[in-house]
Amino acid sequence: EGADFLDIGAESTRPGAVRISATEELKRLLPALEAIASQIRIPISVDTYKAQVARRAVEYGAAMINDVWGLKEDHNLAQVAADTGAALIIMHNQETPQYRNLMKNISESLSHSVIQAQKAGVQKEQIILDPGIGFGKTANQNLEVLGRLDELKAMGYPLLVGTSRKSTIGLVLELPYNQRVEGTAATVALAIEKGADIVRVHDVKEIVRVCRMSDAIVRGWRPDSWKQ
Fold it and tell me: CA 54: distance to chain centroid?
């Protein structure tokens, strides 16, 4: 349906979800990862914050590591990215939505994680930043971050944004998770206008169209057929 890569995780990262051991995560993840890697040609991202899981996942075909704790849970994960050359998505996350200065605190936290990654040997071109919409933030804070993404883009790294079907959209529109595609589309289009390079979504076919139309306006993208 137009996805550029596939993100696979074996432990729920929803706020309040029960954590599982690395052994259980690998038990769930590796058979699926092996089967999927043999059937698709696009890169695979593994959604994990555990170095042990990330290393095995790369061995099984993952090309990206998506760490929702931004190296705060397992510092060794940066070494896995350095050793393997896998792309590293560093997401901002914290336990509570308490901030002295929302955007400054997020950028400082991401900067600290980037420094950790680089000290481990991760190259700049491997790093992707994610502001962590829905993680350690209230609905109002999520909306503020989306409106000020350009401030994080100024850090000089590709920016990934994941808003798909999230509770903030549900609160604004007063809709259940399975009726949030239009709300997701609005957040994606505006995130692209503010500098987002990658969006993580569930409704791929619909949101790819939103991305292409947004890119045509914001970034000058044109269909290949126009170049003939």
Answer: 15
Distance between CA atoms of 79 and 83, rounded to whole angstroms?
6
Catalytic residue among 55, 137, 194, 200, which? 200
The answer to whether residue 200 is catalytic is yes
Positions in the chain short of pLDDT 70: 228
Catalytic residue among 56, 166, 180, 194: 166
| CB neighbour list of residue 57: distance below 8 Å, 6 or more residues apart | 29, 30, 33, 46, 48, 65
- Residue 166 bears catalytic tag: yes
Q: Pick from 56, 68, 65: which is nearest to 13 by CA?
A: 68
Burial of 217 (0-12, 13-18, 19+ CB in 10 A): exposed
Whole-model pTM over 0.90: yes
Q: Which residues neighbour 59 within 8 Å (Cβ) at sequence distance 6 or greater?
A: none
